[in-house]
Design brief:
about 75% helix; MetI-like_sf; cell membrane; MetI-like; Inner membrane ABC transporter permease protein YdcV
């Protein structure tokens, strides 16, 4: 007896509903309890927005937000540059001595446990601190270096996959017509791989903003990122101001996603109109 495919089954909506419920109901509960009047984050005692005011009055939490956003931006930007260079080395230089080792070292952070990565970086900074005063104290610099280390691997994979799909005949045709390699890169290659660069930057920014394990190894007492502050406060009990902070983050992500969707839909509509006009 042949099984009925899931996509043709009447159960598909139930399965989709269960999956989306599992993913989004906890987020909705978190948003609802961010408006809870009481101190207990899991016991509803009335509607109030006071915890949003308390959130912005918490200097430690606000400082951790600014620090995480700064490190995330710097780490993602640096990782895009290094990851793009590494991707071009792997995809465009062909076979060279040490290629296997280079590829392994680039992608090692993808499969390396965070505990091992964080501990090894901690030992590295301790060793460097004996020779350079810059690494004598762990802080924003050491967190930034650690985040760049593992974010670069993700950017390299994203950009490499895009370079593999790129039609090199277009670049070769441009060079045959007299364009320099540098001009070909900025006029043809870079615009073509730009979506991959943006995707890699967003992925690196998200990973940096979300990192807890590695940051706990390489951070100092005066440089606590947002995940570290939230983790330390949650161990003492969930506060409604943490729910308020998480709700604001969900709102920002939702707005950014909507704007990105609107821009892509607008660009696609414009492209279809241009195709119709040219036909």
């Amino acid at each position: 007896m042949n099984a009925i495919p899931v996509y043709n089954s009447k159960w598909k909506w139930l399965i989709l509903g269960l999956v989306f419920s599992f993913l989004y109901i906890p987020i909705l509960v978190l948003i609802v309890y961010s408006f809870n009047e009481g101190r207990l984050a899991t016991v509803w005692s009335g509607f109030s927005t006071k915890w949003y005011g308390v959130l912005f009055e918490d200097k430690q939490l606000m400082n951790s937000v600014r620090l995480s956003l700064t490190i995330g931006f710097l780490s993602a930007s640096t990782a895009v540059v290094l990851g793009t260079l590494a991707a071009f080395v792997l995809q465009r230089l062909g076979k060279f001595k040490g290629e296997t080792g280079f590829a392994f070292m680039i992608t090692a952070p993808l499969v390396m446990p965070d505990v091992i990565t964080g501990l090894s970086l901690l030992l590295l900074f301790i060793s460097l601190g004996q020779f350079f005063d810059l690494f004598a104290h762990r802080g924003m610099l050491t967190i930034w270096i650690a985040h760049v280390t593992f974010c670069t691997a993700y950017v390299t994979v994203v950009v490499s996959s895009r370079l593999q799909e790129l039609d090199r005949s277009i670049e070769e045709a441009a060079m045959d017509l007299g364009a320099s390699p540098l001009k070909v890169f900025f006029t043809i290659t870079l615009p073509t791989v730009a979506p991959a660069l943006l995707a890699g930057w967003l992925l690196a920014f998200t990973l940096s903003l979300d990192d807890l394990v590695i940051s706990s190894f390489v951070s100092g007492p005066s440089s606590s990122t947002l995940p570290l502050v939230i983790f330390s406060s949650v161990r003492l009990g969930i506060s409604p101001k943490i729910n308020a902070l998480a709700s604001l983050m969900v709102l920002v992500v939702a707005l950014a996603s909507f704007i990105a969707w609107w821009l892509m839909a607008r660009a696609e509509k414009k492209r279809k109109l241009e195709i119709r006009a040219s036909s």
